[in-house]
Amino acid sequence: MSARILAIDFGMKRIGLAVSDALGITAQGLPTLERTRIADDLGRIRELIEEYSVERVILGNPVGHSGNPTAMSGRVAEFAEKLRRRLGCPVELWDERLTSVEAGRMLRQSGMGTLKRKRAVDRVAATLLLQAYLDYHANERARSRKAQGNGAEAQADAEAGGIDPRAHGGDAGADE
Q1: Which CATH architecture fits 4-139?
Q2: What is the rounded CA–CA span in Å between residue 80 and residue 141?
Q3: What DSSP assignment string belongs to 12-38?
Q4: How confident is the model at residue 104 (pLDDT cuts 50, 70, 90)?
Q5: pTM above 0.85, yes or no
Q6: Which end of the chain is more exposed for a tag (fewer CB within 10 A), N or C?
Q7: Domain-wise residue ranges, the chain
Q8: Contact in structure between 114 and 127 (CB atoms under 8 Å)
């Protein structure tokens, strides 16, 4: 994953924003977008996509604790569809359960005043959302490489010992 990703924490009053670094390793918060009209919001997001050369957008999907849709997740899905039509790049919904709660907790622990916390919580939530997304995909890539490496190593070991690992459930050379 080497393309930049924009994360959006959608709200009725504000939109939290974060962007990945060019390597897709870290998330950096961007200034929170105060909502005005939908056309203006979409236009500002399009400007950010061009400014940061973003190739994918992830949009926090506020599903309930049980994983079921909420009233807000319906609004987010509508916003995602508008983004898809307007942007011309992939827009993916990503589970954002508890990112705003975690952002609020982190900001309270930092000793930040109430007014500053209110202004920062959406940006921090978008940053947490994006970092979780980046970490998930980095872990998936590492798991995939490890699985491919283990399969290739087992095959090489088996061929060196004349054992077909497929005939032994892939456990060639394992202690029994």
Answers
A1: 2-Layer Sandwich (3.30)
A2: 26
A3: SSEEEEEEE-TTSS-EEEEEEEEP--H
A4: low
A5: no
A6: C
A7: 4-139
A8: no
